[in-house]
Design a protein that fits this description.
Number of helices of chain A: 14
CATH topology of chain B: Rossmann fold
Order of helices and strands of chain B: EHEHEHEHEH
Shape of chain A: elongated
CATH superfamily of chain B: Response regulator
Number of strands of chain B: 5
Number of helices of chain B: 5
Oligomer: heterodimer
Shape of chain B: globular
Strand content of chain A: 15-25%
Strand order of the largest sheet of chain B: 2-1-3-4-5
Radius of gyration of chain B: 13 Å
CATH architecture of the largest domain in chain A: 2-Layer Sandwich
């Protein structure tokens, strides 16, 4: 890179001579042609030298020029030094920019650099492969225009957030390649953001998860199929067990106890299979959502009825709290039952003996707000972000309660989300947990749909 | 009961057919069994049972096809059918009960006594 400071040093130095020349010329010329007046003469009697005023001014001009030259030279040289230094810095920066650009371009993860309106300005090679488009073709789009039509609302939300400078992470949906083939991606949008201001462009990463989705689907279908197959022998065992226990053939006390244990074990298997089926069905999106009017309070009562024995055995104190109009609630009864059942049985399961379980339902015209509080183990803070993952069980729960399966909370989350609601919790270790669920009241647009 | 009510159990699982046969015989019904829809259809049309307990997922001929064929028959159209199944996803069930209004029980949700009581209620016997 050329530096303007360097080449102009001799030129500027010359210019600084200008004041001396100017003064000399103005006053020297009349003196030289002999037109100077006698008053121009100054006698420095002390040293016996006689000079004209012009001579004096010429000398002053020279001194002035020299000092200006010195100052200018000093300034220029120090500036030049800075420029040389800056040059090497720039070179370093350029090198690292090239390095990161190569890294960006060669990354196996598809990345799009986008402008603040979402327009694609720099797609890396992986993204060109993902969409089977050239960089130029991709640069004709905004990043949210590459989705499959079915995901319009989702990508619109991501886009709206992006232009407001809000990040989205790990949103899964399908995009369409140039040849029409659809691919599953996991998208994260990271807008660069000025302090307190709006977004000013950013990076979009689109992880291709098509293969993973296919494996997930096969796995889910397998679980569903296996569960259906399991139910047949389980129901035969259940019914034979009942016939033995209630039959006319006499049993010894021991025999009865053993058969009861077999029966109980079988019941647990049935429950587990039911949960696996529900989970896989929610995952496959094959749950048929049917909006009807029903009273969730009756569901809560039924569930408490089912767990009466555990409540008695553990001497639990139950607090029920109902507020608002419960006669005008519309949602999918099966899913709401599933949500409440998992919340309440979890609370009963994890609360210590003599503890308290509080269930509160608050109805408003827009939604149903559910709170289920237990006096249980609490969730360790470092594991709180994982508790809604499938098959995850917190370490303390795993140690203390053996018969959990890590499906309950996962099912709650999936079910709540397929009803368009939200689930959250607050938890304190060894004090307990409060789960909160909000389910929209689907009064408007009642009908049926598949999620 | 002078004349026993006849129940036809159509299920591909030996154990399940067995347990239903035992329980229903104990309850005083005459029980016929069939291991798939095809055999079930022959037996049903021949012996015209008072009630048919029908599984859905079966080899050779499944429950859906059985219902379709049963409906093509003059007697079969009015036959009493309870679907006893392991499938509890509404979509596959609705295919079975579409328009016919058949009742369905999910096997693992029901106790054997409850199944027997349900059949008694359906047939109007004590």
């Amino acid at each position: 890179m050329s530096d303007p400071g360097k080449s102009s040093i001799p030129f500027i130095s010359l210019i600084t001579l200008f004041p001396a020349l100017l003064l000399g010329t103005i006053f020297g010329i009349p003196h030289l042609i002999g037109e100077g007046s006698a008053e121009d003469l100054i006698t420095l009697s002390g040293i016996g030298v006689t000079v004209t005023v012009t001579d004096l001014l010429f000398v002053i001009g020279l001194l002035l020029s020299a000092s200006i030259m010195a100052v200018v030279y000093y300034v220029l040289v120090s500036k030049y030094k800075v420029a040389v230094l800056a040059d090497s810095k720039t070179e370093e920066l350029l090198k690292s920019r090239d390095f990161f650009l190569r890294l960006f371009d060669d990354s196996p993860v598809p990345y799009l650099m986008v402008a603040k309106d979402g327009e694609i300005v720099l797609p890396n090679k992986a993204s060109q492969r993902l969409f089977q488009m050239t960089a130029e073709e991709l640069m004709q789009y905004k990043f949210h225009e590459l989705h499959d039509d079915a995901y319009f609302a989702q990508s619109r939300t991501i886009y709206d957030k992006f232009v407001r400078g809000v990040a989205s992470s790990d949103v899964e949906f399908e995009v369409v390649r140039k040849d029409g083939v659809r691919r599953w991606v996991r998208l994260s949008a990271l807008p660069y953001r000025k302090q307190g201001g709006k977004g000013k462009g950013g990076t979009i990463s689109l992880l291709d998860i098509t293969e993973q989705k296919a494996i997930d689907k096969v796995k889910t279908e397998f679980v569903s199929l296996a569960s259906h197959q399991l139910r047949t022998p389980l129901s035969a065992m259940k019914w034979y067990g009942e016939m033995v226990l209630q039959g006319k053939e006499p049993l010894s006390e021991k025999q009865r106890r053993y058969v009861q244990k077999i029966y109980k074990g079988n019941q647990r298997m049935i429950e587990l299979v039911d949960l696996l089926l529900s989970a896989s069905r929610l995952e496959m999106g094959s749950f048929h959502i049917e909006i009807t009017s029903f009273d969730p309070i009756l569901i809560v009562k039924d569930i408490f009825e089912e767990v009466t024995k555990s409540i008695k055995d553990k001497r639990l104190h139950i607090i029920e709290n109902y507020e608002g109009d419960h006669t005008n609630f519309f949602s999918d009864k099966k899913l709401v039952h599933m949500i409440l059942q998992n919340l309440i049985t979890n609370a009963v399961k994890y609360t210590n003996d003599d503890g308290t379980v509080r269930v509160s339902l608050t109805f408003s015209p827009d939604d149903l707000h559910v709170e289920v509080e237990d006096n249980g183990l609490g969730i360790p803070p470092e594991q709180q972000d994982k508790i809604f993952s499938k098959m995850f069980r917190a370490d303390n729960a795993r140690l203390k309660v053996a018969d959990g399966n890590g499906l309950g909370l996962y099912i709650i989350k999936e079910a709540v989300e397929s009803l368009g609601g939200e689930v959250g919790f607050t938890s304190e270790l060894n004090r307990g947990t409060i789960f909160t669920v909000t389910i929209p009241n689907a009064t408007e647009g009642s009908g049926t749909k598949s999620n | 009961m002078v004349l026993q009510d006849t129940v036809l159990v159509i299920d591909d699982d030996n154990e399940l057919r067995g347990v239903l046969q035992e329980a229903l015989s104990d309850a005083g019904f005459e029980v016929l069994t069939a291991e798939n829809g095809s055999v079930g259809l022959t037996v049903a049309l021949e012996s015209k049972p008072n009630l048919i307990l029908l599984d859905l997922v079966m080899p050779v001929m499944d429950g859906w096809e059985f219902l379709e064929r049963l409906h093509a028959d003059a007697w079969g159209k009015g036959a009493r059918v309870i679907i006893l199944t392991n499938a509890d996803d509404i979509d596959s069930l609705s295919r079975a009960i579409e328009g016919h209004g058949y009742e369905y029980l999910v096997k693992t949700d029901w106790k054997i006594d409850e199944v027997v009581d349900k059949i008694r209620g359906e047939l109007g016997v004590q």
